[in-house]
Amino acid sequence: MLLAGLLVACGAQEPADAQASAITPLQVFAAASLKESMDAAAAAYHASTGQPVQVTYAGSPALARQIEQRAPADIFVSADGDWMDWLDQRGLVDAASRRDLLGNQLVLVAPAAGTAAPLALGPDTDLLPLLGEDGRLALALTASVPAGKYARAAFESLGLWPALEPRVAEAENVRAALLLVARGETPLGVVYASDAQAEPRVKVLATFPEGSHPDIVYPAARVRASTHPRAQDFLGWMAGDEADAIFRRHGLLPR
Description:
Layout: H1 2-22, E1 26-31, H2 35-49, E2 53-58, H3 60-68, E3 75-77, H4 81-89, E4 99-103, E5 106-111, H5 128-131, E6 137-140, H6 146-158, H7 161-164, E7 168-171, H8 174-182, E8 188-192, H9 193-198, E9 202-207, E10 217-222, H10 231-238, H11 241-249, E11 253-254
Parallel strand pairs: 1-2, 1-3, 6-7, 6-8
Antiparallel strand pairs: 3-10, 4-10, 4-11, 5-8, 5-9
Family: Belongs to the bacterial solute-binding protein ModA family.
InterPro entries: ModA (IPR005950), ModA/WtpA (IPR050682)
Organism: Luteimonas composti
């Protein structure tokens, strides 16, 4: 009778443990510019599989450094290859799982309620009149955050950076830069096209010319320390048709 009782107890414990494992949220660290699209993707994956997905958003460098400090992440989606490479060099992501997931475009935005009109960006473009006497150009951190690095590269390639650099207001990530423009605190900013689509308080004045900056690529990979059984499955799902439609709806370019 004692043995039977132990077997029953063990049998009851195993399904409970399996059930607890099945509902452990998948932890995804994703670039701030993916907020709306990844929220929608996480909800769709949960609805399809029953697996909850919890997404943490910030600038790619901040997320990479958190992963280096062993933050509990299963998947990392960066806004450029540099920060994924940085983790890979430290053995912190599974290189075999890495894939280039998405692309984006870089745009110049202004407050939607303002009078600034669409323009063409080129070597002869003068943005200083749009900034006014004291206005600033909102960018993500140009030394480390992908959106800021892309923006600086674009302005440098067009020959506009020397005039604009003293007027830059740097923000910790691209969504913070977007907010400065949306609130009317800066007359201009540079963000991704998907950011501008998500914020009705800004309007797009111009898209940066193709070739003026490196290709915008969002790589995704499994964090090496992850033991979550659904991590690889979610990576594959994000490259499938259902996720493809979600990302396109939010202004991103599946690769």
